[in-house]
Amino acid sequence: MLGGMLDHHKDALIRLRVMLIQEMVPDELIDHLIGKKVLTAYMQEKIQSKGVSFRQNSALLDLLPKRGPNAFSIFCAALRDTNQGHLAEQLEQQTRMPKPEESCFPLSVEEHGGMHRWRDPCERCMDDGDGPGSVSRTSVNFYLSHYTSAYKMTTRPRGICLIISNVSFSTPDLDYRHGGEVDLNVLKLLFFQLNFRVMERSNISAEKIISELEHFSKLPDHSELDSCIIAILSHGVDGAVYGSDGKLVQLQDVFTLLDNAHCPQLQNKPKMFFIQACRGEETDRGVDQRDGREQTGSPGCEQSDAGREDGRIRLPTQSDMICAYACLKGTVSLRNTKHGSWFIQDLTDVFSKHAKDTHVADMLVKVNARIKKREGHAPGTEYDRCKEMSEYSSTLCRDLYLFPGFPPVTCAPALLSPT
User: Fold this and answer.
1) Is 86 part of the annotated catalytic residue set?
2) Is 235 known to be catalytic?
3) Which of 317, 342, 285, 291 lies closest to 124 in space, CA to CA?
4) Which residue of 54, 154, 242, 397 lies most exposed, with the fewest beta carbons within 10 A?
């Protein structure tokens, strides 16, 4: 049995995964790896069945960490032998970089002020740190049976995604966000596989965050694309996130820059926001469940039509938005310093598996259900059995399916607008 790859080699593959998927030329590379017995002929067939090169690269990177402790060095040598030495150099450089201090405590609290109240040596990520798997594709039949009730989502790319990731801060009150780099890389990979053009900005000040969002809102490409994504990963408080300079950016200002007034190119198009940051200082201690089934209910509510005036259609200032938060108002979010935050781990896994046939709001319900089951452990402290609860808010007006992989490159245009 080959066994697994060394952890620091796995980490290097995770950090550079998006670049490797985009830049590797797989055919000759796979032949070299077969010759060195890192891959088998069956694995070659499985990889090549994925079709386009970026899916083959993704499948190859999924397999490598399970192909023994020598797989990394053989892989780097194969890259050099196939004139892809620049990729090998960057991988090897990653393994020489000093690792963040983890000691034996991989979980930290991303609270206001960034101070670590407690760390949990027992929390583990669900996928052992290998990142999200390949995103499953939507079938033609599913698209044809659901597109009429959904936002249009067929452009290539679907839209532009901006990820702002702050892990290092100039003020001593805000700790380094160990594990934040993992969140950034798995999100880049996820949104790339969901056919978004991904832009990233790391360790930028509050003023720079606003200027980047202003620039993003004015990109002319929005008018030709079907949606957009904003993801912000940082320390935070209720209603705001920190820039790398320790100053706050109000989330309402973020939403305003993408609203119908300030970004008319995205009017009536879905705008997705993902916020990985604390929203207060309280640690959720949880409660014991009473016997019996969970019961939920809410009264119905009717609202009469307001009537319509002749003339141009008017829109609310903010609409067609959905925002997912890692935690509830007033509480801290939890982050594994090796494998990333609970919220991003579950978000990437759920979207990878279910985007093919589940709309975004229902996927966020699935994320909530997973977060609800998680539990921290700090025996002997007041923080033992701490909990987290994610949530989302929505002004979406249609179902939001991402329809990954649809239409296929060879799909007839008639399938996009069936009669």
Assistant:
1) no
2) yes
3) 342
4) 397
Active-site residue among 235, 339, 354, 359? 235
Quote the tokens at residue 33: 């790896």
Q: What mean pLDDT value characterizes the chain?
A: 82
Q: How far apart are CA 347 and CA 117, in angstroms?
A: 25
Query: Who's near 283: CB < 8 A, 6+ residues apart?
Result: 109, 111, 117, 331, 332, 383, 386
Q: What is the mean pLDDT of residues 321-343?
A: 91
Q: Give dist(CA 35, CA 45) in Å, integer.
A: 15
Q: In the numeric block, which tokens belong to residue 383?
A: 């923080």
E strands along 90-226, which residues? 107-110, 159-165, 197-202
Amino acid sitting at position 139: S
∠ Cα 106 371 128 (to 5°): 45
pLDDT score recorded for residue 221:
94
Interval 238-262: pLDDT, tens: 999 999 999 999 999 999 999 999 9
Q: Identify the burial level of 60 via C-beta atoms within 10 angstroms of its C-beta, where 0-12 means exposed, 13-18 middle and 19 or more buried.
A: buried
Look at the block and give the residue holding tokens 């985009």: 22
Region 111-130: mean pLDDT is: 35
pLDDT of residue 105: 35
Residue 266, CA atoms < 13 Å, CB-side half-sphere: 29
Q: How far apart are CA 282 and CA 301, in angstroms?
A: 33
Contact 182, 217 (CB under 8 A): no
Distances (CA, A) of 48 to 14, 51, 77: 22, 6, 21
Q: 108 pLDDT band (50/70/90 cuts)?
A: low
Q: Contact 258/272 with Cβ under 8 angstroms?
A: no
- For every residue of 266-320, DSSP letters joined together read GTTS-EEEEEES--SSB-B---PPPSS-----------------SSS----SS-S
DSSP 312-365: S----SS-SEEEEESS-TTB-EEEETTTEEHHHHHHHHHHHHHTTTS-HHHHHH
Identified catalytic residue from 125, 228, 263, 278: 278
Q: Which long-range contacts (CB under 8 A, 24 or more apart) does 366-369 make?
A: 367/324, 367/343, 368/392
Q: What is the mean pLDDT of residues 374-403?
A: 85
DSSP per-residue string spanning 61-130: HHHGGGS-TTHHHHHHHHHHHTT-HHHHHHHHHHHHSPPPP-TT--EEEE-TT-------TT---TTTTS
